Amino acid sequence: MSQPRGPLSQLRRGHEELVLGLLRKHGPLSRGELGKRCGLSRTTLYDILAELVTSGAVVTATSQDAPRGRGRPAETLTLNPDAGQAIGIDFARRALHVAAVNLAHEVVGSASEPHDADLPWEQRVELAARLVGSLTGTGGGTGTGGGALRLGALDAIGVGVVGVVGSQAAEEDESAPHPAQVLLRERFGVPVLLDNNTRLAALGEAIWGAAAGGQDVLYLRLSHGVGGGLVVGGSLHRGAYGLSGEFGHITVEPGGAPCDCGGTGCLETVASIRAVLDAFRAAGGRAADVPELVKAVRAGDRAALTLLDGVGARIGEVLAALCNAIGPSVIVIGGELAETGGALVEPIERALHDHVMPVSRHRVSLRRATLGEVAGALGGIALVLHESPLLSRYPAGPDLAEDPIPDKESR
C-alpha cells in the first residue's frame, strides 16, 4: 500500500476513506445517497468513485447492462469483498495467532499455533507466513476460512508483540524498527503497524467482543504474562511512552518474589501461568499446563480451588484500586487462566466488591473475554483500518511506511 506523501494526496486519501467508511456502515448506496451523507461536491465524489471502481475497491450492486426505463432502481455501489484484505498477527510469548478480514470487514479466517518461547524472530515470521498461507487453503497450520488471500486495497499488517512498544532503553536506537516489522515487510512488501499485543486484545474485545460498545473498559489478560488495556472516554489509551496497561507490575506482595521487570512482588509473580502452576505444584498438585489445572478444578481438587481463591482475591484487589482511579463500566478478564472459570472469577468478583468504592459496586460489570486467542490479531486489524471511534485519538503507532517497499527481485 503506497502511502500518501503530499497534502493533496492525503486529502484525496481522506475522501476515499470517507466514502469507503460510509459504504461499510450503511451498505450499498446510490451516488445520490453518498453525496448527501459525505458532503463532498458532486464533481469530487464522482471522481473519487470512478477511481474506487477502477481499482476494484467498489463495485456496482446492480448490473449496468440491465434495460433502462421508468421504475428501474437507481444503480447502487457497494464494497467489493474480494478487493483486498488486512492481516493481524499476534506474536504472543509461546504462540502465534493470525486473523484476516476483507474490505467489507468480514473475517476471512484465523489460525493459531504454539511455539517455544525462545523461537528466533526469523522462524516466528516464517511461521506467521505459513499461517497466513493456511487461510488460503494452500498452506499448513490450523486455519479456518477459505478463499484466496489477496493483499489489495487493504494491503497492510497490524502486529502485536509482547512488552513495551513506543519506548526503548536509552542505549537503544529509538528509531530502530522492531525485528517483526522488518521481517514481515520484507516478506509481504506492505506497511506494518506495531503495538503491544495485550493492548490490541483490549481493542479487539472492545470492538467485537465482551465489551463491544463500551466507552470505559478495563481489560486484564492472565497469561504467561499479566497485562491489559484501557478504553477511556471511548478511546483506546496508549499512555506516555506506550506504558499503559502494565497492570501485571503493580505490587501486591512487598518484598515478594522477583519479577522480570526488575521489581518484586508484582501481580505477575502471583497471577501468571507460571506462578500459578508453580504454586499449585508446591501445594502438592499435579498440572503441567493450564488444561490440566482446569481438569483439577473441575474434579474439585481442594489445593487448586484454595490456590485460585487466593489468586483471585489479589487480582480483585488490584482491579478495585484501578476502578477507583479510572472508573470503568466494564472489566473484561481474558487469557488462559480465565479458563479456570468460576474458581478464579468468583473470588475476583468478591474482592472487587469488597474493595471498590461503594458507589461503584453495582455499576461495574465483570465479564469473561469472548474472542479467545485471536483477540490480539483482531485488534491488530482494527489498528490497520484505524476507523473505529476507539482509535480517534490514538496514535497510528510505529511503522515502516516511509521506507520504500523493496522490489521483489531484491528480496
Automatic annotation (TrEMBL):
GO MF, any single term: kinase activity
PROSITE patterns for the chain: ROK (PS01125)
InterPro entries: ATPase_NBD, ROK, ROK_cs, WH-like_DNA-bd_sf, WH_DNA-bd_sf
The entry's keywords: Kinase, Transferase
SUPFAM superfamilies: Actin-like ATPase domain, Winged helix' DNA-binding domain
Keyword Transferase: yes
Family, as annotated: Belongs to the ROK (NagC/XylR) family.
Protein name: NBD/HSP70 family sugar kinase
